[in-house]
Automatic annotation (TrEMBL):
It is found in: Cell membrane. InterPro entries: EmrE-like, Small_drug/metabolite_transptr, Small_multidrug_res. Gene3D superfamilies: 1.10.3730.20. Belongs to the drug/metabolite transporter (DMT) superfamily. Small multidrug resistance (SMR) (TC 2.A.7.1) family. Gdx/SugE subfamily. Its main location: membrane. This is Guanidinium exporter. GO terms for molecular function: transmembrane transporter activity. The lineage of its organism: Bacteria, Pseudomonadati, Pseudomonadota, Alphaproteobacteria, Sphingomonadales.
Amino acid sequence: MAWVFLIVAGGLEVVWAFFMKQSEGFTRPLPAAITIVAMIASFALLSWSMRSLPLGTAYTIWTGIGAVGAFLVGIIVLGEQANAMRIAAALLIVGGLVLMKLSSQG
């Protein structure tokens, strides 16, 4: 169950990052409120996952899901630049996440 909490927490990190951008510096109330609620939920789920997962594994996976997810949302939803170097960097992050997951199974 810890892994489920962690994956959902990472997804919520993407949500709050997107809505923080949409809040325009917390000047728009609805996106700002969504940001805060998603942050709290993300931190709570991360905390629950850390009850049984190692700190380094949980935090790395959480931030990696958030980083790659925000990268993808930026490209797909916000029309941000997708060049070879940015894509390679995202793939390296994903590779690191896979290795972290595999290293924590044993």
